C-alpha cells in the first residue's frame, strides 16, 4: 500500500498540539523558576547604572543602559511565560497533558485524537525522571507520520540485520523474535523468528484495539442505564461494560455515576416516586469474572458494572488494590447518591431488567477511539478486557474470556492479517498462554496506518511516546525520546515492545520485539530499548 502525503500543516497540526502538551508543564515550571531570578537581576542592575555620573562620562550611554537591562530581564520572563501561555491557549488540556478538543475530531485521515489517560499514575510503575530537554519538534512530527512516507527508499534488510542482530542476540533476551516492516509499502524489511508464536504480554492490546475499532467503529460509546420497573417499583442499574464509569467529583469527559443518580432522581420525582427497591444488572457479560492470573492489583474482577475500575485509592492507572465485588460497590454508591437527591433506596441486590422497564437516565463513555488510546497509553487491563467482551458481543460470540479471544482473532483474519500461530486468550495479555507473532504485530500497526482504515488510527495515536507518556515515560532517557512510539509488555520472564519509529532518513517503520524466558527484566527491557533506539538512528541503506 502507498500512503499519500497530506498537506504539511494538515498532517502536522494535531501532532504539534500533542508535542506542545508534552512540554507544557516543563515550560510552565521553567517560567516560574526563572521569573524571580530575572527580577532579582533587574533589581540588582538598577542601582549599578543609577549611580551619580562621573565627570566627563557620556550621558546618553549611561541613560540607555538601565533600560536595556530591564528590557532584557522583562523580555526573558515574558518569553518563557508566553511560551507556556501559547501551549495553554491550544487547550483545553486534560490530566495527561493532551488536548481535549482532539477527541472531538471526526474519524478520518486527519484524525489523531487525544484523551484523558489519567495522568495520576501514568508511569505504571516506572519511576519518573526530573525535567529534561524535549526532543526536536521535527523528529516528533515525523515520528507521528507527518512526512515519513514520502522520503527516501526503505532501509535494506542486510543493513538492518547488521545493526539489529548483535543487539537482539543479547543473552538478556532469552528466546526472542523480531520484525521490522515499512509502513508505506507493508513490506517486511527484517525478521528473525518473525513467524514464531511467543507470549506477547501487553502488546496483545494492539490486537484488541484493532479488533474492537474494526468491529464497533471509533465513535461507539459504552452506555450505563438506570431503568424503572413499574410493577415492583424497582430501579435497576444496568451495567453497560464501561470500566471508566466514575463516582468521583472530577470526571472530565468520563461517564459520571453522580450525574446518572441526579438525573435518575429527577425522573423519579417527576413520577412522584420517592422510595425504591434498588437492584443491579450484570448480565451483559458471561463466564468467570476473575482473570486466569487470579486476584491481582493489575486488574479488577471483569464485570460490566464498576466505578473507577474498582480502585480503592484515587489512582486512574497502574496497579492498585481492588474492591472484591465491583458491581455491588457501584450499586451501593449509586444508592447513596440517590438518597442525597431525595430518593430513599434499599440496599442493592443482583437482578435483571425486564423488557417492561422504562429508561430513567443514561450516561455514556467517551468514544471508543478515546478508550483505545487510554488503554494503550496506560496499558489499562480493565479496559482491554471490557473491549474484548464488547468485540465478542459485536461478533455474536459469548462475552467471556474465550469468546473475546475468538472474536479478536476472527476480526483480524477478516482484515487480512497473518493470524497463523496466534492464540488470543484474553484482551489484556495478562494470560501467559496467549501467543502472537512479531510479524502479526507489525502488520497490525501497518493496518492502523492504512488510509483505507481511518477508524484504526487511534491504535497509532494511543501508543506511548518514548520519554514522555504512559508506560514509556520513564524510559529512553537519551537518543530516541519523542521518536519511538511503542506498546510495552511485561510478565515474569516476558519482555516485549511493539510500535513505530522513524529512521534517520525519515522513513516510518513498524517494529515488534518479543523476548521470552528472560531472567533479568531490567536487562531485557534495556536491550529492547537499545534495539528500538538503534532502529531510530539507522539509515541502513547500504
From TrEMBL:
EC number(s) reported in the record: 3.4.16.4
Protein's name according to its UniProt entry: D-alanyl-D-alanine carboxypeptidase/D-alanyl-D-alanine-endopeptidase
Annotated stretches, region: Disordered: 112-136
Record-linked Pfam families: Peptidase_S13 (PF02113)
Protein family: Belongs to the peptidase S13 family.
GO molecular function annotation: serine-type D-Ala-D-Ala carboxypeptidase activity
Gene: dacB
Naturally occurring in which organism (per UniProt): Streptomyces edwardsiae
Domain of life of the organism encoding this protein: Bacteria
Keyword Hydrolase carried by entry: yes
Amino acid at each position: 500500500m502507498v500512503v499519500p502525503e497530506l498537506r504539511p500543516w494538515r498532517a502536522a497540526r494535531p501532532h504539534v498540539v500533542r508535542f506542545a502538551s508534552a512540554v507544557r508543564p516543563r515550560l510552565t515550571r521553567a517560567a516560574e523558576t526563572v521569573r524571580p531570578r530575572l527580577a532579582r537581576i533587574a533589581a540588582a542592575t538598577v542601582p549599578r547604572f543609577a549611580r551619580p555620573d562621573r565627570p566627563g562620562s557620556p550621558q546618553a550611554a549611561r541613560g540607555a543602559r538601565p533600560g536595556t537591562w530591564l528590557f532584557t530581564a522583562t523580555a526573558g520572563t515574558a518569553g518563557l511565560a508566553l511560551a507556556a501561555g501559547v501551549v495553554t491557549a491550544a487547550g483545553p488540556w486534560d490530566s495527561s497533558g493532551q488536548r481535549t478538543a482532539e477527541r472531538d475530531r471526526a474519524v478520518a485521515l486527519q484524525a489523531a485524537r487525544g484523551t484523558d489517560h489519567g495522568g495520576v499514575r501514568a508511569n505504571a510503575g516506572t519511576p519518573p525522571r526530573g525535567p529534561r530537554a524535549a526532543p526536536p519538534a521535527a523528529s516528533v512530527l515525523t515520528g507521528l507520520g507527518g512526512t515519513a512516507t514520502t522520503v527516501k527508499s526503505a532501509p535494506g534488510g542486510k543493513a538492518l540485520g547488521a545493526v539489529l542482530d548483535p543487539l537482539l542476540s543479547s543473552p538478556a533476551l532469552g528466546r526472542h523474535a523480531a520484525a521490522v516492516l515499512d509502513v508505506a509499502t507493508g513490506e517486511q524489511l527484517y525478521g528473525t523468528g518473525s513467524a514464531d508464536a511467543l507470549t506477547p504480554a501487553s502488546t496483545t492490546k494492539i490486537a484488541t484495539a484493532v479488533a474492537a475499532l474494526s468491529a464497533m467503529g471509533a465513535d461507539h460509546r459504552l452506555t450505563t442505564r438506570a431503568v424503572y420497573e413499574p410493577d415492583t417499583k424497582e430501579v435497576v442499574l444496568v451495567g453497560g461494560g464501561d470500566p471508566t464509569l466514575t463516582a468521583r467529583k472530577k470526571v472530565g469527559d468520563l461517564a459520571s455515576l453522580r450525574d446518572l443518580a441526579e438525573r435518575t432522581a429527577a425522573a423519579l420525582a417527576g413520577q412522584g416516586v420517592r422510595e425504591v427497591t434498588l437492584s443491579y444488572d450484570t448480565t451483559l457479560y458471561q463466564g468467570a469474572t476473575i482473570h486466569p492470573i487470579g486476584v491481582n492489583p493489575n486488574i479488577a474482577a471483569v464485570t460490566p458494572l464498576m466505578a473507577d475500575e474498582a480502585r480503592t485509592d484515587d489512582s486512574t492507572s497502574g496497579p492498585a488494590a481492588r474492591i472484591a465485588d465491583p458491581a455491588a460497590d457501584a450499586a451501593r454508591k449509586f444508592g447513596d447518591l440517590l438518597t442525597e437527591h431525595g430518593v430513599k433506596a434499599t440496599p442493592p441486590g443482583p437482578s435483571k431488567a425486564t423488557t417492561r422497564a422504562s429508561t430513567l437516565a443514561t450516561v455514556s463513555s467517551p468514544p471508543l477511539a478515546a478508550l483505545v488510546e487510554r488503554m494503550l497509553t496506560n496499558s489499562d487491563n480493565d479496559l482491554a478486557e471490557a473491549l474484548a467482551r464488547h468485540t465478542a458481543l459485536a461478533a455474536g460470540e459469548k462475552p467471556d474470556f474465550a469468546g473475546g479471544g475468538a472474536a479478536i482473532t476472527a476480526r483480524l483474519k477478516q482484515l487480512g492479517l497473518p493470524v497463523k500461530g496466534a492464540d488470543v486468550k484474553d484482551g489484556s495479555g495478562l494470560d501467559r498462554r496467549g501467543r502472537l507473532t512479531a510479524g502479526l504485530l507489525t502488520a497490525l500497526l501497518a493496518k492502523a496506518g492504512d488510509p483505507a482504515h481511518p477508524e484504526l488510527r487511534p491504535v497509532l495515536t494511543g501508543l506511548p511516546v518514548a520519554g514522555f507518556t504512559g508506560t514509556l515515560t520513564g524510559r529512553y532517557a537519551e537518543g530516541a525520546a519523542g521518536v519511538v512510539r511503542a506498546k510495552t509488555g511485561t510478565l515474569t520472564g516476558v519482555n516485549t515492545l511493539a510500535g513505530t519509529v522513524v529512521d534517520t532518513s525519515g522513513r516510518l517503520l513498524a517494529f515488534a520485539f518479543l523476548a521470552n524466558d528472560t531472567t533479568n527484566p531490567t536487562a531485557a527491557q534495556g536491550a529492547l530499548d537499545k534495539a528500538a533506539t538503534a532502529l531510530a538512528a539507522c539509515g541502513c541503506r547500504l
